[in-house]
Structures are given as C-alpha cells and as structure tokens.
Amino acid sequence: MNKYTDTYMQGAYGSDVNQGSTYQKGMPIFDVDTPSIIVDLDVAEKNIKNMQDFANSQNVSMRPHSKTNKSPYWAKKQIAQGAIGICCAKLGEAEQMAASGIKEILIPNQIVGKSKIQRLVDVNKISKVIVAVENEQNLEDLSEAFVKDSRTLSVIVEVNVGMDRCGVELDEIIEFVKLIKSKNGLKFEGIMGYEGHTVNINNYEDRVSEATKAMNILIEAKNLLVENGIEVDIVSASGTGTYNITSTIDGITELQCGSYIFMDGNYLKIFDDFDPALSVLSTVISRRDDRIVLDCGLKSISMDQGLPEVIFPKGITFGSLSEEHSKCLIDDPQNNNLKVGDKVLLRPMHGDTTINLHDEYFVYRGDLFEESIPIVGRGKFK
Ligand SMILES: Cc1ncc(COP(=O)(O)O)c(C=O)c1O
Q1: Whose Cα sits closest to atom 12 in ligand 1?
Q2: Taking all residues of the chain, what is their mean pLDDT, rounded to a whole number?
Q3: Which of 191, 230, 349, 367 is deepest in the core (most CB within 10 A)?
C-alpha cells in the first residue's frame, strides 16, 4: 500500500465498483433515481471489443483515452480486451487510475508547474506514466525534479499536426529531441500528434484527406528522427472519428481513441461504426398540453456540442435547458399520455462533459440494473 492506493481505498467507494449501492442487481433500470447516467453494458463491451479487433487487424496497439470514461472499471475492461495501457488527460485522473492498479498511463498533455511535477514524480513510483512534452523550460523542470528523486520519466514529443494547439513544428523536432536526450532524468520514447481538427469532419472522403494530411506530418517527424539516427518506439495518435484512417497509415504504432466506448451523439451524426451505450435517465416533473419538463438540466447533462436528443419515448422533441430543468415539446399531444413521474431517456451530444457531472454510472444488461460504477476521475482536472 502507499499514499495513492490508501487514498483510493479510503475514498467514497474504495473499489472500482460501488459496493454500497442501495440498488439491487436485477431491478428494472428505469427504477434508478434521476437524473442519472445509465450505460448498456452489452453495447459498451461490444464497442470495446470491436475497436480492439479493428486495431489488431491493422497491427496497431490500443491505448484508449480515459478522458471519456474516467473510471478504472472501464479502463480495465479495455486492458483485458488487449489495450497496452490507457491515456489520461490530466494528472489528477492519472493518479486515480494508478491508485486503482493500472500500470501504464500516457498523459498526451503537458504537465507544467512545480506542484504538478512533484505529483508526477510521486505517481511514477507506482505506475509508469509517460508524458507529452513540447517546451524547453518544461524539459528543464521535469529533468530537475526527476534527477532530484533519482528517477527517470518517459516522454514523448507532441508534434503539431495542424490542430495548432500544442506541439513542436517539424523544423524544431530534431533539436528538441536532442535536447531531451541531453537531459538526465528523461527518456525519449517517441512522438504523438492529435488530429483533433479532423475527427468531426462530416464527409468521409474529406475526413480521410484531412486526417491523412495531419498524419503525414507526424510520419515525416518520425522519418526525420530516424534519418538522424534517433530511435522512435511510440508513434501515437487518433480520435474516434479517425480510428479507421489513422490506423492504416504506415508508421503509426498506437491509437488514443476514447469516445467510441459509449459513442457520442455528435459522432453518431457522422458515422455509426460503434453503437450508443450511454444515456441520461430523467423524470417528467411537469406536463402542460404539448409541453413536458424534465428534472435534468445543465448540471446533469452537457450541451457544449449541442442540445441532447430524446431517444425514449418517441414523439418528443427536445427544446431547451436551464440549470435543473429541460423543456420538451410533445409532437402529438392529443394522443400522448406521458405524465408526471414517467421516465424519459436523453442522449447527450458529448459524453465526456456529461460524465464529468456525475458521481456514478448505473450499468445494465437487458433492462436490468447490474451495478453502480464510481466515476473517480470526475472533476480531477488538476
Ligand atoms: C490528445 C487526444 N488524444 C485522443 C483523443 C480522443 O478523442 P476521441 O474522444 O474522439 O476518441 C483526444 C480527445 O480530446 C485527445 O485530446
């Protein structure tokens, strides 16, 4: 035991599954109190398997991004299916995953600042954490902290593949990697590039051409390094929208996709290779003629990528959201007997930000409650 596992075990749940759930296995999932996020276990498991099978067929590894699920329960299912590890967006999420026993975590983001770097040193004592780097001062700070603790940090260089977020440019990469190699306490393991500006392109041919353009930059970076005698073990990339494009590009070694596990409403608008597994269960708290009001608002479902969609019952059109309410219109009010207390299922357009609002998932098979899963990474954005 150590300070991470101790904290995890003494936390609200103490394990990957909520042992103290008040709900009985086998009860109807619609009996769960609302608003709640519910997940169809069969569908989520099928998504995990299909993505892993696809990656295997392309000879690339899966390192699924846990920024979506934020929970070791799902991460361990992905690893059991064949993933080589996971990604975490934030150090706080990585600490939770490491505490739960996950042994290899890539943070495809920059860890900047004294207190975070010290936490990174500590979490590296229980799990291997690989971090993306792209700034010289950051290299200096990481090196100093790891040397002081007589430890080594594995790093990959983030390359700007056209998203213009973080990342070094092609003409900087050789010097930057040489700098890493000159620093004690750091081990260069490879490169990454996130083609996030292409994952949501509607038209498939356009998505192929833009994602390929982006990945060609990453492969060019790799080739430049190899030509300069530098070994590149990891070439990491991809989001759900580009999984079947990026994985076919020669030189890519692993995929970082995350959303496919539950499949966002927004992704479903452009392709349906994976099935939707997650929805928000809500209750009708008011009905007037052609209008119903639900107990679910901005504090329990996100709308950063658009308004949710009503998936059950049919004949309801989502209207608007306020903090704790949703207004919906009934298409044919005379012939609809929806009443106060009835349950309504909503599909969020963006799973990640909706999941971040909840403490637990309620998972089900068929229509029956299976177990409650703590979302230990929610709110861990530091
Ligand atoms: C660096 C990085 N890699 C991978 C992903 C995975 O994307 P998706 O959720 O589309 O699978 C993201 C998403 O934000 C990301 O920021």
Answers
A1: 239
A2: 96
A3: 191
CATH level 3 topology of 3-39+273-374: Lyase, Ornithine Decarboxylase; Chain A, domain 1 (2.40.37)
Give the integer Cα–Cα distance in Å for 103 and 126: 7
Q: Please give the pLDDT value at position 85.
A: 98
Residue spans of the domains in the chain: they are 3-39+273-374, 41-261
Whole-angstrom Cα distance, residue 173 to residue 79? 32
For residues 321 and 303, is the Cβ–Cβ distance under 8 A?
Answer: yes
- The sign of the CA dihedral 200, 206, 208, 210 is negative
Residue ID of nearest Cα to ligand 1 atom 5: 239
Residue of 158, 238, 256 best suited for mutating to test ligand 1, as the one with most atoms within 8 Å of CB: 256
Distance 316 CA to ligand 1 centre (A): 32
Atom 3, ligand 1: which residue's CA is nearest?
256
Q: How far is the CA of 67 from the centre of ligand 1 (A)?
A: 8
CATH code of domain 41-261: 3.20.20.10
Residues 366/12, Cβ–Cβ less than 8 Å: no
Q: Is the pTM of this model over 0.85?
A: yes
Mean pLDDT for 85-104 is: 96
Pocket residues for ligand 1 (CB within 6 Å)? 65, 68, 108, 194, 196, 199, 239-241, 256-259
Tens digit of pLDDT for each residue in 181-234? Answer: 999 999 999 999 999 999 999 999 999 999 999 999 999 999 999 999 999 999
Probe residue for ligand 1, chosen from 134, 257, 269 as the CB with the greatest number of ligand atoms within 8 Å: 257
What is the band of 12 on the pLDDT scale with cuts at 50, 70, 90? low
User: Measuring CA to CA, how many Å separate 233 from each of 15, 84, 174?
Assistant: 34, 14, 16
